[in-house]
Design goal:
With 85 residues, this protein is mostly helical. Helices cover 61% and strands 11% of the residues. The chain is built from three helices and two strands. Strands 1-2 form a two-stranded antiparallel sheet. The longest helix has 28 residues. It is rod-shaped. It starts with a helix and ends with a strand.
């Protein structure tokens, strides 16, 4: 299966370089994951009896992580960069 850039080349044209988005696009997902894990550890240490708080922390940070991860993955999946001669 060829890439989109290869499929639209004109006669005699060649791809000199190709690339994709850097993994840093997942930055917000990583931030939410680390902050959620930190908040969870703090809650487990200081308020282990507050199960409702722990549950909502996991739900909130988990939802933000999943949403930003899927968005970044989709943007990275559909992005293709090519330099031709």
């Amino acid at each position: 299966m060829s890439s989109y850039a290869e499929s639209v080349l004109q006669p005699g044209e060649k791809i000199v370089a190709s690339g994709r988005l850097h993994w840093i696009i997942y930055g917000w997902s990583i931030v939410y994951l680390v902050c959620g894990a930190g908040a969870l550890l703090i809650e487990l240490f200081y308020a282990p009896e507050e199960r409702w708080l722990i549950r909502w922390t996991v739900i909130a940070f988990g939802a933000m992580f999943v949403a930003t991860f899927l968005y970044a993955w989709f943007i990275r999946w559909i992005s293709e960069f090519a330099v031709t001669n």
